[in-house]
Amino acid sequence: MVTFVIRPIAPYDFSLMVRRLKGVKHEAFRFEENTNTLSRTIRTKNSVYLAQIRSVGSTEAPELEVRLSGTPPPGPEESSELRTKLTRMLSATVNLKPFYEHMASIGPEMQALTGRFRGLHLLTEADLFECMCKTIIGQQLNLSFASELTRRLMRTAAEPFLADGVEYPVFPSPEDVAALEYEQLQELQFSRRKAEYVIDWARKMKDGTVDGDSLYEKSDDQIMTELLPLRGIGRWTVECFLLFGLGRTNLLPAADIGVRNALKKLYGLDVQPSEQDVRTLGASWSPWSSYVTLYLWESLHEWEGEKL
Predict the structure, then answer these.
(1) Is 55 in the same domain as 150?
(2) Which residues of the chain have pLDDT under 50?
(3) Can you give the residue ranges of the HhH-GPD domain (predicted)?
(4) Sequence-ordered alpha helix ranges (H) in the chain
(5) Distance in angstroms (rounded) separating the CA atoms of residues 307 and 30
(6) What pLDDT is attached to residue 308?
(7) Burial profile 90-128: b = 16 or more Cβ within 10 angstroms, e = fewer
């Protein structure tokens, strides 16, 4: 087992992030109440490991203790790769103080919204392949059924990770999914087109048509230009990919129903704002539109009591 500490930039409220994961019933995470530990499996280039994350600090002095386990245990190179992945996934290097200052200057509604969720950071997916698969799966589906389809894909295409007699789900690799036939996903209740889009994405990642590592270095516009020509990938899909895969801070999915409903509630509007209304209102949120979006989504829910 390898253990290390990640020290995120304050304010950083790990409990709010765990609460959100419980609420959305994220397929890959488990929260172990007895040890106050968040667990999920993570892939490296060569293997799969279990990461167990526990907060040992506070919102204003955050520290996250991470334990990595696997057989064999990760060596120095893989430990470094995993630390990089986890730091990115946990948005530990994002400083939200300028965000809160900016929102306070916009008006009392935004100041109240950000104050309510102070310290909540984006939690991105573990890797870009997983993120795009899940985003495609979630197109035009409710959250519950999309999560169920993701679980079925994981059970079909990847063996679970066994630790101390407990099975932890593993998201399949591009090679795992590329080897599937469309009909296999249709048997899991994927539509034919959705099955094609997911497997075709895997095959493009496998053969190098899409170089996932290079996307981290590209601008939002460059990524949009590269991915939009691919079948099954539209603007909303790329926006979600930039948000939940790359953790970009200035994404505004203005057509999203949740964002529009949250703004209606926040400002006490009589009707739901249109996509153009959201873009007009959201012009003042830059360069923090992603975090406003996250907080708006969170404002629609009461997650207390949900189980992961």
Answers:
(1) no
(2) 303-308
(3) 137-306
(4) 14-24, 76-89, 97-106, 108-116, 128-137, 143-157, 174-178, 182-186, 192-207, 212-215, 220-227, 235-244, 257-267, 275-282, 289-299
(5) 9
(6) 43
(7) bbbebebeebbebbeeeeeebeebbeebebbbbbbbbbb
Q: For the chain, give the number of residues.
A: 308
Given 207, 213, 256, 277, which residue is catalytic?
256
- Residue 101 within any structural domain of the chain: no
Residue by residue, DSSP assigns 21-55 as HHHHT-SS-EEETTTTEEEEEEE-SS-EEEEEEEE
**Separation CA 43–CA 36 (nearest Å):** 23
164 is catalytic: no
Question: In this structure, which amino acid lies at residue 91?
Answer: S
At 27 the pLDDT is 86
Amino acid residing at 134: K
**251-287 CB burial, b ≥16 within 10 A, e <16:** bbbbebebbbbbbeebeeeeeebeeebbeebbeebee
What are the structure tokens assigned to 17, written together? 């992030």
Q: Are 173 and 97 in contact (CB under 8 A)?
A: no
- Distance CA(189)–CA(184), nearest Å, equals 9
Q: What is the CATH number of the domain that holds 30?
A: 3.30.310
pLDDT at residue 302 in the model: 61
Q: In the prediction, which pLDDT does 46 show?
A: 83
Q: How many CB atoms lie within 10 A of CB 187?
A: 12
The C-alpha atoms of residue 246 and residue 170 are separated, in whole angstroms, by 20
Same domain as 151, residue 211: yes
Tell me the sheet residues that pair with 74. none
pLDDT value, residue 288: 97
The answer to whether 257 and 278 have CB atoms below 8 angstroms apart is: no
* Number of domains present in the structure of the chain: 2
